[in-house]
Amino acid sequence: MLGTVRTWAAGAALAALALPSAHAAAPTVVVTWNQAVLAELRAGALAPPVAARALAITHTCIYDAWTAYDAAAFGVVSSLPRRPSVERTTANKSAALSHAAYNCLLNLFPAGATRLQAVMTGLGHNPWDTTRDLTRPQGIGNSAAAAVIASRRSDGSNQYGDLAVGAYADYTGYVPANAPMPFCLPTTAGACLLNVSDASRWQPLVNDRGAIQRFAAPHWDRVTPFALTSASQFDAQGPVAAGPNYLKGWANLQADIDSMLAYSAGITMQRKVIVEYWADGPESELPPGHWGLFAQFVSQRDANTIDQDVKMFFALHNASFDAGIAAWHLKRKYDGVRPITSVRYFRQGQQVLAWGGPQQPVKWIDAGKWTPYNPGSNLTPSFPGWVSGHSTFSAASAAVLRAFTGSDTFGYSTVVPPGFGRVEPNVPAVPTTLSYPTFTAAAQDAGLSRLYAGIHYADDNTVGLWLGDQVGQQAWDRARALGTLASGMVAEWMFDDTIGTQVPDRSGSGRTLTLNAGASIVQPSISGAAVRFAGAAQPFGATATATINTANSFSVAGWIRFNQLPNCQNQALASQDGITVYGFLLGIDAPCNGSAGAFKFAMRAFDADIANRYSATTGHGPATGTWVHLAGVRDAATGMLTLYVNGRAESTVAYPYRWSANGSFAVGRGKFSGQLRDPVYGDVDGVRVHSRALSAAEVQALYKAAR
Hints:
Largest sheet: 8 strands, antiparallel
Number of strands: 24
Radius of gyration: 28 Å
Shape: elongated
Structural class: alpha+beta
């Protein structure tokens, strides 16, 4: 069994994985780069959600580069041409992934350039090769990294310090409700100064060196997430909707304080070890990185391939990234008080049985001096309490690892050596093993460690675990959907590589789209270039033959931006011709004589003007000047048509027929009465066609891929 020995040296956290045997396989290149990120995190001073972003960006760069060498996966940001199967070698993947990871990490951690160059050269790659040649793996990696970095340039994180001075600095004007609490222990002479103005709000502390805490990343709920619809997505759901327990009345607050004092009085050597092991404070890999170590263990335990590790670490760290956004949103929204403030404020002057401070036993102390058992120079972390970040990060990570491996089985043990503790140097006195048979058990212990430490109340933990699980499942759904999006793709026209009137089919199916007179290529767009149709001249693009069999399942999606909405003039983003009418049409019923119009996905019963139209339509109409993502899904097995607008299912109708329209596939027009109709007055980009019914998660992933 693989064990982890973790020691503290010169105040820094050093994590080392011990191999299970002399014959253990070498780590994949993905693990090597995960280790490189964790090394940079330990060398820096990022807040937990910022660290989660760094991990997510790095593994998104790796993932996007890897998709060029996979038959089914779809990039989050990049739309790189798929390399031929003969090029899908371990060597090419390693080169592409390494160049992607290196460039992203150099952007995130410029101070680590020398260390990162050493990782590259150690893997046999040239860190100074900056080619963008997409026929070379180095060019694939460099291009993927550039696309991901650009997509995160203005994501609300303030990485570049252009929203407020300093990388990741707050630009929202957060000011704490309470003045700082001076450093004080149970052994400090005299009374502790409390400085409490609002006992329901977070209070910054002064540490043992006189430094005053500042809320780390109070702006983080403004960061663009991976799979969340918004930072507040779960505010009205489950236990999150009820808010913090201590705000529900005096009795609830007192119960929280009593519970916290009971944990303090019940602190044991085993619990102290658990607190120290899960502390993940400054100079460590932080909570998101801790689960990166766990994923490294899983990789070796299961003898993962490069492909498996690309997908596992990508899903894991993007789940952590979203967990940080959701948790920090609640921390900012409620500005939740930490136990040190409420215990000292409401119980000052009372004698309570509690931990007596470093090297002191549990004893009777003045509650006004009550102190958490928390490693590091700060008695509590530098941000509000509700909800627990540890719990949210851990539950999200556990959800992904359960889903990826198909089991909750973990089988992980870690040996904590004597003298590991920072609060008390004799913790533990002898080597102590912590074992986690399941991912769930590890997440639960991570949350409990914060209660043992005295820095969170019980519902900080339980609500955080619930929230993290929801976030993790959603991130997994999107990651899995991205992994299957190219499956069944029969056409992909991005318009970035148009030559004259010919738009290549990036799916590899050879269905070139030919533009007629009046169509033009314009920039910028959703992704690179788009095609512009002038409407009145009826320009369009079409294939020489049919692209899909409309009698079977299929999906069509694309982006459209209307420049004009002429009265009563319908417009078709995409369609496929019959002899007389379209077989399907994705577009709009135009505003007409005062009506708002509607988006629609329609099919005809048979090839005639009189054939009934079965149409999934929205209750709202289009507008000019805004990009909209439309997707139509025909599921022949269920006999249903579903229309999606900006990744959301808006309408579903039954369609009981199996008529096959065998004519050209068209972009920018439809067909009726044997005539070309419904021209587009605007721009179209990213048209993709599948010969299967995409799932709701896949449509959402397709929308977010270029959002």
